[in-house]
TrEMBL record:
<dbReference type="InterPro" id="IPR047755">
    <property type="entry name" value="OrtA"/>
</dbReference>
<dbReference type="Pfam" id="PF22010">
    <property type="entry name" value="OrtA"/>
</dbReference>
<protein>
    <recommendedName>
        <fullName>2-amino-4-ketopentanoate thiolase</fullName>
    </recommendedName>
</protein>
């Protein structure tokens, strides 16, 4: 039984360039590691985790890679709040003549 069926939102992984294929002009710590791709899209056929698959991205690109997640979550953030920026909207409204809310 497949982990995901055709049309499921998934994430794939692929090594784009091995470390020895990377440009010699990169910093040493960057040259030592492969260039990797993680991409989300809709699965074009049924598959199990670890299978080589093809996905179609939201903009219609078809990309191949190893299936690593089914229904992957978004887990990025913008870091900690900057206290100086939290009140800037209210301060600007006061300056422009609003009530500051």
């Amino acid at each position: 039984m497949p982990d995901a069926v055709k049309g499921t939102w998934v994430q794939i992984h692929r090594v784009v360039l091995k470390s020895e294929e990377r440009s010699p002009h990169l910093p040493d710590d960057t040259k030592k590691v492969p260039l990797e791709l993680r991409l989300k899209g809709f699965l074009t056929h049924d598959a199990c985790i670890g299978d080589e698959v093809e996905i179609e991205t939201l903009i219609g690109r078809r990309v191949k890679g190893r299936l690593v997640k089914v229904n992957p979550e978004y887990d990025h953030g913008f870091g900690r709040p900057v206290p100086e920026l939290l009140t800037i909207g209210m301060e600007l409204r006061k300056i422009l003549g609003g009530d500051g809310r």
